[in-house]
Design a protein that fits this description.
This protein has about 600 residues and is an alpha+beta fold. It contains 16 helices and 31 strands. It has 3 domains: about 5-240 and about 410-465, 2-Layer Sandwich (BirA Bifunctional Protein, domain 2); about 255-390, YbaK protein, CATH 3.90.960.10; about 480-580, Anticodon-binding domain (Rossmann fold), CATH 3.40.50. About 25% of the residues lie in helices and about 25% in strands.
Length: about 600
């Protein structure tokens, strides 16, 4: 490929709306252009990198025994109504109508479609196991698209779905996908870590996310340096708070005391009351499937909504408003509590969900359900009727690991892949059933496995860049080598040499672009570094006079080599780099 024959519109300045470095470099290096919020056009260099990631994904999925299919992006709403996600996933669904005013959905994912397919085609245990996958465009109604391809309204995803006869068999399918994902991200040059994860709106019993550590990541990962534990913050557990919860006191009676103007945990901890946050019970009010519920945590803890949703088995929950709270509890946020004797009328029937860190707590302080008043000497087992205990708190750095006992750390990361063990949630509702050897009917046991292909592209850039631009891993670079002649005058020795090297490298199976622009060397070098080609070959008059050309790995030092050995030197460098990423010469073509 010649530079003048393609389209690489590089920019000197960062776009005003690009908040993170990978988004900035996507645009500056001429990989994508924004159409509007959450929608991007891929330009030639970006498309080449994207196709390479797709190919790596495809090769590893095929290697793991998955079967490629291609499903419609446009989906009928009835299968979503049948699965129950027409309601539970309504906030992300794009709904459109045709000329007959019939409703359709633009698919954000394809569990319903693939399960409907299997329901109509597979009926016997002899046809299982099966794992179907596709690489397809998805649509999600992001309320706030941002960070370029990280959170877009339209994106490319690889999604796979396994169908098995038993939970044990499904676990084997899950492990195959887990291993395939490990290989995929390694081949893409990503340092990804697998962490335990919440199953979210997709549902299921068990899942892992593949996370790329990055300061700009929208997720937080809790991990132990021993390597024995890692989990998304939404799933993470620990051995409990660093400061133990006060336990049952001497039996002092409840005492109500005035706290005028005190409506926060911090305010109650200051003079004149001096109640430490870990000695307070925080009372939150949530609307759960249209009904109010009380949620209790220690004052120094934060509610993890994903854990609450998991404990209650629903994603239909939100914080209640002050206007919803006051008529039922008789007080406003800041003075709320769950003391049984203060819950009258409708409030007496509200369920109370308490975090495990409060179990056995005594000598605590909580709101009195009377504005400007609190109770002290609270014993939770004596004074509060808890409907259900659950782990509801967000783990904090420094707490001890459940596996190793070492302090936990928290870091930000980008999610690039997610594997779920779904069970029979979809197969039961959509009738994906099979007959066993005895003729008894059972629902297929399912798993689903997603990789954000476009997100993976940007994650590579976020993890691999320097002050000059992108530093592509060889496996996903738009081109492996950029030849930069410092003069492009027709029939000049410089251009003739560049053309010979260009032809020889193509013959050797190396992906090479020839920068044949009539521009200053500095401009060409800056563009090559910005776009991030792994190896640059510079041909100039001075080096030719010495019988040499210059080879420079991206981010490395310039290495002069003799003209006659230049092609072999490049070939060996490429071969070594490919081997490090698990590539072969044939794989990269």
């Amino acid at each position: 490929m010649r530079w003048t024959s393609t389209f690489i519109p590089t920019l000197k300045e960062n776009p005003a709306d690009a908040e993170i470095i990978s988004h900035q470099l996507l645009v500056r290096a001429g990989l994508v252009r924004k159409l509007t919020g959450g929608l991007y056009t891929f330009l030639p260099m970006g498309l080449r990198a994207l196709r390479k990631i797709e190919q790596i994904v495809r090769e590893e999925m095929n290697r793991a025994g998955a079967i490629e299919v291609f499903m419609p992006a446009l989906q009928p709403p009835d299968i979503w109504q049948q699965s129950g996600r027409y309601v539970s996933a309504r906030e992300v669904l794009y709904k459109v109508r045709d000329r007959a005013n019939k409703e359709w959905l633009l698919g954000p994912t394809h569990e319903e479609v693939i399960t409907t397919l299997v329901a109509g085609e597979i009926s016997s245990y002899r046809q299982l196991p099966r794992n179907f996958y596709q690489i397809q465009t998805k649509f999600r109604d992001e309320i706030r698209p941002r960070f370029g391809l990280m959170r877009a309204k339209e994106f490319i995803m690889k999604d796979a779905y396994s169908f098995d006869v038993s939970d044990e068999a499904a676990q084997a399918s899950y492990q195959k996908m887990y291993d395939a994902y490990t290989r995929i991200f390694r081949r893409c040059g990503l340092r990804a870590m697998a962490v335990e994860a919440d199953t979210g709106v997709i549902g299921g019993k068990f899942s892992h996310e593949f996370m790329v550590p990055a300061a700009s990541g929208e997720n937080e990962v809790v991990y132990c340096e021993s390597g024995q534990y890692a989990a998304n913050i939404e799933k993470a557990a620990s051995r409990g708070p660093v400061i133990p919860t006060p336990q049952a006191d001497s039996g002092a009676a409840l005492e109500k005391f005035p706290t005028p103007g005190v409506v926060t945990i911090e305010a109650l901890s200051r003079a004149p009351h001096h109640v430490a946050p870990h000695q307070q019970i925080k009372t939150l009010v949530y609307v759960v499937e249209s009904k109010l519920a009380l949620v209790l945590l220690r004052g120094d803890d934060q509610l993890n909504e994903a854990k609450l949703a998991g404990a209650l088995g629903t994603n239909q929950l939100r914080p209640a408003t002050a206007d919803e709270i006051a008529p039922v509890l008789g007080a406003h946020p800041g003075s709320l509590g769950a003391i049984a004797d203060t819950l009258k009328g409708e409030a007496a029937s509200l369920p109370v969900y308490a975090d495990e860190a409060l179990r056995g707590a005594g000598g605590m302080t909580t709101g009195a359900n009377e504005d400007g008043h609190h109770f002290r000497h609270v014993r939770i087992e004596r004074d509060i009727r808890v409907t259900r205990w659950a782990d509801l708190r967000t783990v904090q750095a420094g707490e001890l690991c459940v596996a190793s006992g070492q302090p936990l750390k928290v870091r930000r990361a980008i999610e690039v892949g997610h594997v779920f063990k779904l069970g029979t949630k979809y197969s039961e509702k959509l009738n994906a059933l099979y007959l066993d050897e005895s003729g008894t009917q059972h629902p297929c046991v399912m798993g689903c496995y997603g990789i954000g292909v476009t997100r993976t592209l940007q994650a590579v850039i976020e993890q691999s860049h320097d002050k000059d631009g992108i530093v592509w891993p060889l496996s996903v670079a738009p081109f492996e080598v950029c030849i930069t002649p410092l003069s492009v005058a027709p029939n000049s020795p410089v251009m003739q040499c560049a053309e010979r090297v260009y032809a020889a490298l193509i013959e050797a199976g190396i992906e090479v672009i020839l920068d044949d622009r009539d521009d200053r060397p500095g401009v060409k070098f800056k563009d090559a570094d910005l776009v991030g080609f792994p190896l640059r070959v510079a041909v100039g008059e001075k080096s030719l006079a010495r019988g040499e050309i210059e080879i420079k790995p991206r981010g490395g030092a310039v290495n002069p080599v003799k003209i006659e050995s230049a092609v072999e030197a490049v070939r060996k460098w490429i071969e070594t780099a490919r081997a490090e990423l698990g590539m072969g010469m044939a794989q990269s073509r």
